[in-house]
What we know:
Blueprint: E1 3-10, E2 15-21, H1 30-43, E3 57-62, H2 79-82, E4 99-104, H3 106-114
Parallel strand pairs: 1-4
Antiparallel strand pairs: 1-2, 3-4
Amino acid sequence: MILTIRIVKNFEYGVVKYLVLKDLEETVKIGELKERLKKIIKTDSKFLPFRSVEYETIKIFSFPFQNKEDNFVINLTKDDEWILDDEKTLKECNLENECEISFFNFQMYQTFKENPKRVFDLKKN
């Protein structure tokens, strides 16, 4: 299975770095995937600017060949269904080959969701 991970550092400024993981087994638990992602962020130099955030939540962004949200940073809908449980496997979460998921800090997400305006979307006076 191939997954595209959107590592979200900042919602308001749209700071996202993409990571493609290949050859994932469907039996991998979400908790294990989070630990793997945290290790990559901690050890891979291209993620150096992303180390200041405590990442702990994974949410589905989109399924292959389906419509995507207008917000390119995160999908703001279906929190109950699409925020993934650490104890479930990729298969149990219905993740398919080439799904996109987001990895982010939940408190930052909640703050952004209350007022989902990106800095570059605001009109200049």
